[in-house]
Amino acid sequence: MKSLVFTEYKAPLSYQDSIEPIAKEGQKVIKMQAAAFNRRDFWITLGLYPGIVPNCILGSDGVGEVDGKQYIINPNVEWGDGDLPNKNYSILGMPVNGTFAEYIAVDADRLVEKPAHLTTEQAAALPLGGLTAYHAVFGKCQLKAGEKILITGVGGGVSQMATQLAIAAGAEVYVSSSSEAKILKAMEWGAKGGVNYTKEDWAKRLGKDTGGFDVIIDSAGGEGFKDLVRIAKTGGRIGIYGGTRGAIPQINPAHIFLKHLTIYGCTMGSDKEFLKMVEFVSQHKIIPLVDEVYDLENGNKGLQKMAKGEQFGKVILSI
Amino acid sequence: MKSLVFTEYKAPLSYQDSIEPIAKEGQKVIKMQAAAFNRRDFWITLGLYPGIVPNCILGSDGVGEVDGKQYIINPNVEWGDGDLPNKNYSILGMPVNGTFAEYIAVDADRLVEKPAHLTTEQAAALPLGGLTAYHAVFGKCQLKAGEKILITGVGGGVSQMATQLAIAAGAEVYVSSSSEAKILKAMEWGAKGGVNYTKEDWAKRLGKDTGGFDVIIDSAGGEGFKDLVRIAKTGGRIGIYGGTRGAIPQINPAHIFLKHLTIYGCTMGSDKEFLKMVEFVSQHKIIPLVDEVYDLENGNKGLQKMAKGEQFGKVILSI
């Protein structure tokens, strides 16, 4: 079967023939129809991810068919029953072969019926981003209707899902981005407002205009994290699931404890949350944003687009 | 009546006559018997505390008598009914007159009967430290029996209370200190171990020896906070209620989110937690550590001792 395989660092993925998987006990072999890139795939190609092995079919997100039905695949491998992952936990697509292939063998309990309101490509955009966003917004930060939430860097796939989930939950949603177009898109969805974080004093002004935030979802870290602490309300919850801007410099503990803030480190989410997320998406008819669809053979073009940060929405592979 | 009054920065407290308070509706006038210093009092004398007003009787902790019974005083002023303090919340002893006086008028619902197993002086050592510790250890970090907890800087009053509470809850307790004597005291109480944080690589070795911590309670911040993040287990909870070592430099967000860590900013606790704390202390016969007892007139000697960091246990005023 055709597949996109990680073979070496800082090189294109290899479009090559792989051996068709065989179902072990409790597994199903899925005929893949669409998959999606995540930032994780990009980090892996740079060698910036823990536990990398060579000659692995990448891909955490995917939709496929088996027994005449379409399913989305839960990308958790061995999460277990609890709120925290088991020790041998990994994410589909490294080191376990992933979704960028014509066939994949997964445990049958990884399969969730594709929500009817989504196209195959839209559904492929959902799993990892939807799970991470759901876990951060609801599982950890416990967002409630009417609360004010700020979601930073709305260009990212998880941020977009977080924005859509929070709007559907009845929160007052604000976003930040360096792109006015992305802010406008979020406002089309129903965000109350957005700010360009390249402008000076954006956080100070936003804090003043809104009265501060109950919940903040961030994947940047870096120098700007200080501002987020500053514009969180008393009792505010900050969920951080990434660090694209690097280390957080100089946080004064008093700014955290005098305001009773909680900072949640978030990554992925439990199997239970995956089911809840898909249910929530179905109930509220949320449609993940798709940037562009490539054939599996041209997958490296999608990866290049991500490397330049040019995508807005998920980069999809049609298989 | 005699009282210890804050009049100016970086000067001794003024031992002076103040007007005896009169009970407003819903209040009781308490004849004070003992009070205790907190680090807060020391910060106030340096001007390093928010909302300072001059000519205020200091003191958040105290035990006194009314209607023939002994009570400890809940130092929360206007916390309210929720998990977070009301907007007009303050702590007894600034800007509202505190416990360093012969009499105090407080709302009747601030009074909780003195636990029978404590002397007057021991009971005076309990309120603020006990509440902060209880809130951090149980209210926020949800410590459970059998879990591993590290409490840093066991020289401090809150740390000592946290250590005693955690031991009573059946946790495996480790402490850190720059003083071997303080570590030994904690081990007398039932701590499993302790490390001298002035020694190189203490955190790395402790992490290795223990397998990491489910809960960490810290009031230092500073450079060492990075080590705490490092030796927290996956899913670990870190409660921070102070920043004696200043700003936290350079935290890598990945160290927080890849391990699903939660960082709780903690300060004081709710009225409900105050009641639970006193009940827990009574049930487990916990005895706060008293360093030394001074007459109200000689209170500045206690303050000087705190300024030098020489105390081990609470500095008490007998009134």
Descriptive overview:
- Two copies of one chain form a homodimer.
- Helix content of chain A is 29%, strand content 28%.
- Chain A is an alpha/beta fold.
- In chain A, the strands form four sheets. In chain A, strands 3, 5, 6, 9, 10, 17 and 18 form a seven-stranded mixed β-sheet that branches. In chain A, strands 13-12-11-14-15-16 form a six-stranded parallel β-sheet, sandwiched between helices. Chain A has a three-stranded antiparallel β-sheet with strand order 2-1-4, with no helix packed on it.
- Chain A is globular, with a radius of gyration of 19 Å.
- The mean pLDDT of chain A is 96.
- The A-B interface holds A 50, 83-85, 140, 221, 225, 234-235, 240-243, 246-254, 256-267 and B 50, 83-85, 140, 221, 225, 234-235, 240-243, 246-254, 256-267.
Give the helix level of chain A as a range of percent: 25-40%
Strand content of chain A: 25-35%
Output the helix-strand order of chain A.
EEEHEEEEEEEHHEHEHEHEHEHEHEHE
| Gap from first CA to last CA of chain A | 11 Å
The general outline of chain A is: globular
